[in-house]
Automatic annotation (TrEMBL):
Reaction(s) catalysed by this chain's protein: pseudouridine(1915) in 23S rRNA + S-adenosyl-L-methionine = N(3)-methylpseudouridine(1915) in 23S rRNA + S-adenosyl-L-homocysteine + H(+)
Subcellular location: Cytoplasm
Molecular function terms, GO-annotated: methyltransferase activity
Keywords: Cytoplasm, Methyltransferase, rRNA processing, S-adenosyl-L-methionine, Transferase
Gene3D superfamilies: 3.40.1280.10
Listed name of the protein: Ribosomal RNA large subunit methyltransferase H
Gene field: rlmH
Length: 159
């Protein structure tokens, strides 16, 4: 399985980098995982609705340029589908079973994802109705993907 995490914005916090590196190391036993960091669009603090859409569109173009036609895309969105760890594990297992060996998880910038990215997504995923920093979502996502592999292999993992 080839998994890409395509994300907007640079990761600066050392503690997050350490956690992400740990889960990337753990996941290397199960899958090839790449984190693709794309620059966020510089924008002033107070944007109009139109300006927000323009920022998301520019970031969306960068995201879409990194996605191949044969990639199964899962967009992380606050209004996406909530799933249990077991449900995510089952989905990843089914994708592998049915020949979808390329998966891309998309994490947008602080304004979210463009309509074009959401339209390209095969599925959506929400971890909560709460808002999390997109940098923290990388760590949470990697932990859940790792947990999914452990579940699918019947390997122990704390609950």
């Amino acid at each position: 399985m080839n998994i890409s995490i395509i994300t907007i914005g640079k990761l600066k916090e050392k503690y997050l980098k350490l956690g992400i590196d740990e889960y990337l190391k753990r996941l290397s036993t199960y899958a090839k995982v790449d984190v693709i960091e794309l620059p966020d669009e510089k924008a002033p603090e107070n944007l109009s609705e139109i300006e927000m859409e323009q920022v998301k569109d520019k970031e969306g173009e960068r995201i879409l340029a990194k996605i191949n036609d044969d990639t199964h895309v899962i967009a992380l969105a606050i209004d996406g589908k909530m799933k249990s760890s077991e449900q995510l594990a089952k989905e990843l297992d089914q994708l592998a079973t049915y020949g979808k060996s390329k998966i891309a998880f998309i994490i947008g910038g602080s304004l979210g994802l463009s309509k074009q990215v959401m339209n390209r997504a095969n599925d959506t995923l929400s971890f909560s109705k709460m808002t999390f920093p997109h940098q923290l979502m990388r760590l949470i996502l990697l932990e859940q993907v790792y947990r999914a592999y452990r579940i699918n292999r019947g390997e122990p993992y704390h609950k």
